[in-house]
Structure formats: C-alpha cells, structure tokens
Amino acid sequence: AVVQRLAASGATVVAAGRDQGRLDAVLQAAGETAGEVQTAVVDLLDEAATTAFAAAVSDRNGRVDGLVHLVGGWRGGKGIVETDLADYEWLHDHLVRTLQHVSRAFHDALRASVRGRLVIISTHQVEAPSAKNASYAAAKAAAETWTLAVADSFSGSGAAAVVLPIKALLTPAMREAKPDAKFSGYTPVADLARTIHDLWLTPADDLNGRRL
C-alpha cells in the first residue's frame, strides 16, 4: 500500500526485502504508476550489505528523500517469568537491529535532502505494555528511542524522523475474510499509506521527533 501510494504521486520508490518473489508481488501490485518502482534484495541484518545497498540507491537515483522502515514481526509471551527471552532476541533483531543498520546507512543522505523523512511504525503498547507482550513492547520502545535519537541528529536540517504508533493494521484481505467484523481501533493500510505520503507535505519542524 505504501509503495502504491508513493509511486502514484510520482516518487521513485525502492522496495527492499530478503525475498525477490515477495518483491515481485509488490511490483505487480503497484501496476502502472506516475513514478518508478525499483526492487532490491538485501538482508538488513547484514550491516555491510545494508551499507552497500544504501550507496547503490544513492548512486542510481542521485539522492534519497525518505526511508520508510516497515520491517516487523510479533511474538507474544506468557508473562514476565514464563516468557522465553529468545523471543526478545528475535524481536530485537527484526525491530531494532534492522532499523539501526538501515538508518545509519541512509543517515547522511536523508540529512542532506531538503525534505528527508525517516518513519517507523510502532505500537501503543510502548505507553501501556502488558506482561504478556513485554518483549514486543520493549523492542518497539527501543526502536522508538533510536528513531528519536536520529531525530535529534536531524535537528537543524530539512529532515525529520517520525514514529507512527498504531494498534494493528487492517488489510483488504482481512476485511474480505470478515466483512462484518468491526476491527475496532485497527488502521486500514491505505490510511497508513496516505499518512506516510503526507509526511513529505508537512514541514520538518512540525514532524521531527514526534509520535503522531
């Protein structure tokens, strides 16, 4: 949904992931757009590969105006004592380490842009964590803290780092499967994509370091 919305507005979008098959599906779903959609296979847990990927994107396109970090994952738990801390390690790698690698790799290009944007998707559980979701909330909190630190690094430039906390995402497939369900508090992916798109229409000073 994010790729479609940005490309429809004329942006050049680079969709990155570990699986070319899934990237091909994104490319197909985007269809004919005003912008261009490129794909790149990269493992963001590999810092050297991520740094090389960022350099290639900059070289090919001349500049980088945005980084939308959509790498996710969820693992629940059974309580503070009962939870397997291996789940936290997994969550830390996927939610935090990937963000650290990619935000470091693109940092200078984003800060140099006249309207660079870094955005992550977080959760309301950061503010109200439960014992059963302690590992997930803690990893998301770490990702938020890292993003706000990047925001401090962007201070004084045209760039902004933003956190978008949600409860859960609602996809068209979910709605089709349960047409009568209320999905109370869920965010439709199209709405999220529109919110992300509009970050480039809002001054950096109104965004940087904020949870929206």
Short description:
It contains seven helices and eight strands, in the order αβαβαβαβαββαβαβ. It has helices spanning 2-8, 20-30, 47-61, 85-112, 134-154, 172-177, 189-198; strands at residues 12-17, 36-41, 66-69, 117-123, 160-166, 169-170, 187-188, 210-211. The longest helix is centred in the middle third of the chain and has 28 residues, at 85-112.
Shape: globular
Q: What CATH architecture of the domain at 68-211 do you see?
A: 3-Layer(aba) Sandwich
Strand element count: 8
* Assembly state: single chain
Report the major sheet: 4 strands, parallel
Low-confidence stretches: none
Give me the secondary-structure category: alpha/beta
Q: Could you describe the 3D structure shown?
A:
This protein has 212 residues and is α/β, with parallel strands linked by helices. It has a domain at 68-211: NAD(P)-binding Rossmann-like Domain (Rossmann fold, 3-Layer(aba) Sandwich), CATH 3.40.50. It has 7 helices and 8 strands. It has helices spanning 2-8, 20-30, 47-61, 85-112, 134-154, 172-177, 189-198; strands spanning 12-17, 36-41, 66-69, 117-123, 160-166, 169-170, 187-188, 210-211. A 4-stranded parallel beta sheet has the order 3-4-5-8, covered by helices on one side. α4 runs parallel beside α5 (134-154). The longest helix has 28 residues, at 85-112. The two termini are 19 Å apart. The mean pLDDT is 96.
Keywords:
single chain, 212 residues, alpha/beta, Rossmann fold, two-stranded parallel sheet
